[in-house]
Amino acid sequence: GVDLAFQYAYFDLSYLDQTMMPIGNRNDLYLFKVNPFFEMGDEFYKLRLGVRMDGVNRVQEKDKFFAVRPDVSGSLFVLNKKLEFYAGLNGGRKLLTYSEIINENPFIGNNLMLLAQNVKLGFEGGVRTNIVEIVDLHLGVRYRHVDNDPLYAIDDYDIDYTQSVIPFNKFTLVYDETQTVSVLANVRVKLRNSLTADLGFAYNNCKPTNEEYAWYRPTTEGKLKLTYDLNDQLAFHSSFLYQGGRYAKVVEFGNHGFTYSTQKLKDVLDLGLGADYKVNDQITAFALLDNVLCQKYQLYYNS
C-alpha cells in the first residue's frame, strides 16, 4: 500500500509598529508526504517494510527540504500470543498546529512561527506479555532524534524595559534539536473481578543541542490508577500522578538589562478521585475531583 498526505499552512506574523509601518512578514509552508509500504504476517509474526518520504517548501524563506526515513516494524508472537517482542525504526516530518500547542500549554502566545517537526530517527522496542491472565505487562525503550523540537519559554517580546516588568502567563516556542532516550514500564493487574490497578512509569533523558534543558519536560513520570466496578452501571476510580525533574527558562532583570536563568520546578503530586455512571449505551455521567491533597505546583513557571 501507500499513504499520501499534503499539508499547507499560512502564517501572517506582520503587525504595525508605533509609526503604523508593518513589521514582519507572512510565511507559506507546504508539506508533502509519501509512504509506500509492504505488510505481511500470520499468527507467529507481523512485519511492515516501508519508507517515509517528505518534502517541505517554505516559500518566503526560499527553503526546501527533502528526506527519506525508514518505516520498518515487526513483532514476534510466542506462547500462543501471550508473549510479544516488538521493534521498529521510523522518522519523518509533522507540521505543528496551533490547536495542538495550545492544548498542551494554554498560556502560549499568538506570535508564533510554526515549523515542521522533523524526526530524523526514531526507534522503539520492547516486550508485552499476559502470561499470567490477571497481569498485563509492557516494558519498552524508545529513542528519538528530533529537529525543530518545540520547547516552551517565556515570551520576551512584551518585556517592559522602562519598568523592568516581565510578562507572566505568556509563552513562546523555542526550537531545538533534541535526542531523547525513554524507558517505559506499564502493568495492569486484575486484583479481583471488580478491582483493577494500572501502574505506569517512564524515565526520559532528553538532551537538547542549544538549550540547557528540555524546558518543562519531566525526567521521571509515574501514575497509579485504581478502578472499582461496583456494578455494570457504576464505577469508582482514584489516580495518583507524579512528575519530577522539570526545569524552566526564567527571565530576570539585572544591571545590564534582562538575563536568562534556570529554575527547577517543584515536583507534581496530584491525587484525583472520580466516578462514572452509565445511564445507557449512549450516555455516561461522570464526576472528577483533582488535586485532592491541595498540593501547590506550577505546570508552567508563574502560571
Describe the protein in words.
- Strand 2 and strand 3 (22-23) form a beta hairpin.
- 2% of the residues lie in helices and 65% in strands.
- It has 303 residues and is mostly beta strands.
- What's the multimeric state? single chain
The shape is globular
Uncertain runs with pLDDT below 50, 5 residues or more? none
Distance between the termini: 47 Å
Helix content: under 10%
The SSE string, one letter per element, is EEEEEEEHEEEEEEEEEE
Figure out the total of helices.
1
Beta-strand proportion: over 45%
Report the average pLDDT across residues.
88
Arrangement of strands in the largest sheet: 1-4-5-6-7-8-9-10-11-12-13-16-17
- Radius of gyration (CA) equals 24 Å
What composes the largest sheet?
Answer: 13 strands, antiparallel
Q: Structural class per helix/strand content?
A: mainly beta
- The count of β-strands is 17
Summarize this structure briefly:
With 303 residues, this protein is mostly beta strands. It has one helix spanning 98-104; strands at 2-12, 15-16, 22-23, 26-41, 45-58, 63-78, 83-95, 116-129, 135-154, 171-190, 195-208, 220-229, 234-244, 247-254, 257-264, 268-278, 284-289.
